[in-house]
Every structure is written in structure tokens, then in C-alpha cells.
């Protein structure tokens, strides 16, 4: 079982490194942002140390990627990039920005936006 965990840590580290470099962030940037040393972050990416869920979530937030995307790609047998299966707006982090903006709205405006979206969605799904 430890071999499986070591392999998981290695694949997770590879995935995080690929996402980090794709976003143009340095190892030092990510380490500082999540509150660990450069060496510790280096060990995470090398699969030498296991990441806590809390740290993985902080890294995912920093990289503007859904943690499920990271984990799904780590669990997959192939090393295909799971980001390419997502809609373009998800790859660019629009989903994250929309949610952040939506939840920063006052509740009455948020509810009005919600009802508007439901109405538009309902109209699009009605059969002629």
C-alpha cells in the first residue's frame, strides 16, 4: 500500500508542477503563498512528501483550478491533461471569478441574479 501512496504523491506532485508552470508561477511564489519553504514545496512536487488536503486546496485556489480536476487526473491511468476536457471558461478560471463575484453581492441582488439565470435557463430548455 505504501508503494501506491508513493506513486500517488509522485503523480500529484507532477500534476501540480505542470499546472504551476502552465500558470507561469515559480516554485518560490507558490511556496510563499501557501506558507511553506521552497524546499518543502520542491518535495511536494517531487512526490517525496505528502500534501495535506488543506494545502492542496490552497494550491488549487492559487492555481485557479478545481481540486477535483487535479485529483481526477492523478487517479487516471493515462496522463492526459484533464484541463482540456473542460470548457474554455473553466480553464481560464472564469468559474472561480464568477462564483467569487456572485457571493460578494448583497443577498437581494444575488437572489435577483439567481432568478434571472434560472429563467433564462428554463427558456432555453423549453421545447418549441
Can you describe what's shown?
- The chain is mostly helical and 128 residues long.
- It has 2 domains: 2-86, Orthogonal Bundle (434 Repressor (Amino-terminal Domain)), CATH 1.10.260; 93-128.
- It is built from 8 helices and no strands.
- It starts with a helix and ends with a helix.
- Residues 77-86 have low confidence and may be disordered.
Summed up:
About 70% of the residues lie in helices and about 0% in strands.
What would the keywords be for this entry?
single chain, 128 residues, mainly alpha, 0% strand, elongated
Q: Which runs of at least 5 residues are low in confidence (pLDDT < 50)? A: 77-86
Number of discrete domains? 2
Mean pLDDT: 80
Q: CATH H level of the largest domain: which superfamily?
A: lambda repressor-like DNA-binding domains
Q: Please estimate the helix content.
A: over 70%
Give the topology string: H per helix, E per strand.
Answer: HHHHHHHH
The SS-based structural class is mainly alpha
Amino acid at each position: 500500500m505504501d508503494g501506491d501512496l508513493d506513486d500517488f504523491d509522485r503523480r500529484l506532485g507532477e500534476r501540480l508542477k505542470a499546472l504551476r508552470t502552465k500558470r507561469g508561477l515559480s516554485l518560490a511564489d507558490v511556496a510563499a503563498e501557501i506558507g511553506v519553504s521552497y524546499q518543502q514545496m520542491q518535495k511536494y512536487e517531487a512526490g517525496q512528501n505528502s500534501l495535506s488536503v488543506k494545502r492542496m486546496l490552497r494550491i488549487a485556489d492559487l492555481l485557479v483550478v478545481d481540486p477535483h480536476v487535479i485529483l481526477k487526473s492523478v487517479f487516471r491511468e493515462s496522463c492526459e491533461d484533464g484541463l482540456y476536457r473542460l470548457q474554455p471558461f473553466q480553464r481560464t478560471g472564469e468559474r472561480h471569478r464568477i462564483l467569487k463575484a456572485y457571493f460578494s453581492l448583497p443577498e437581494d441582488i444575488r437572489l435577483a441574479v439567481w432568478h434571472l439565470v434560472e429563467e433564462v435557463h428554463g427558456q432555453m430548455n423549453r421545447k418549441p
